[in-house]
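Lecture notes, unit on binding sites. The following record was shown on slide 14. It pairs a sequence with adenosine-5'-diphosphate.
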Amino acid sequence: MSQPTLETFVREALNRVPDPASGKGLIDSGRISGLVIRPDGRAGFILETDRGPADEPLRAAAEKAAASVSGVTGVTAVLTAHGVPPSSSPPPPRQPVPPPPEARKGAARPARTIIAVASAKGGVGKSTVAVNLAVAAARSGLRVGLLDADIFGPSLPTMMGAVGRKPEVTAERRMTPLELHGVYGMSIGYLISPDNPIVWRGPMVMSALVQLINDTEWGDLDVLFIDTPPGTGEVQLTLAQRLPMDGVVIVSTPQEVALVDVRRGVAMFRKTAVPVLGIIENMAWFEQPDGSRAYIFGEGGAQKTAAELETPFLGAIPILPELREGGDAGLPAARGEGVSARAFALLSEAVLNAAAKTAGKPPPVIEFL
Ligand code: ADP
């Protein structure tokens, strides 16, 4: 017979905590998912709830039970909403609706300025842009947060060079964002093992996101950038409804196929009353050794679409090998001295100025090095 593992003991401990709803232990009731035990003894799991914050004491009890197992060095338990069975669940709304004004007013405001970075399609460089905008803004002297809301494919840990690191938890049980390259970052990727991908159900995604925002000790942020998942789905809608966002920046390549989706994205954000600050064209061209530009994905498409949609064109970023290398190595190029750093310094200034305008606030003081 094989030796019981630490995971077995954690499961047993969790199962000794009764689930008030079913009377069974938390494991037998199926309320624990995504259990991970790291080699250093840190445990993490999700406790599903359909009672929201009312289940906080249960979450705390589960956390305590897991922490009491000898060999466990720390525990992170995330509370999420349980998926409603399909028979009783209403179909998701087809059309985004503007958030009720009172909901937006009552929402927590983790930063003076909140800017989402969105894209209609994956792979256009949205995360690269979000990370480098944040690093450039931090370099200008602002206190900058970055929330990786790409629950399905968090890239912040890789791009910031923080794979395997975990946020610390304060005595008040709040998570401390990881400060890297001057930016305070939080990502679901810091809480969940990449080897244990989670199949997120709609309501779980929403509550995990809200918890990531609300349970993080952001400090006194000047600006919070949010890297959203690609597309115009539920996550974008939830963020638009839950957070008083000052605006969204849409990243696109010049390709026509990407641009059709951009039009859709702009339309959605307009419906949710989040100001579209403008479009950033990424992978706009490639500079050849002789200095000429090769327009690999077409020329000026995003600029044309921006004009058509009466949305500002915020700028173009060429294909720059240092951007990809920096992303892979966890050293964002915006922290260096190269052309990317200069481009992102200007872009982040343009984005922050646009946000200040929509919010009717004076623009923050920007002092680029
Ligand atoms: P998304 O978030 O839209 O899925 P990513 O930011 O992950 O896209 O970028 C996809 C890939 O393209 C990454 O390997 C990234 O390093 C690379 N990349 C993004 N923008 C550029 C650019 N301007 N020049 C070179 N490589 C880029």
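Take-home: The chain has two domains: 6-81, 104-356.
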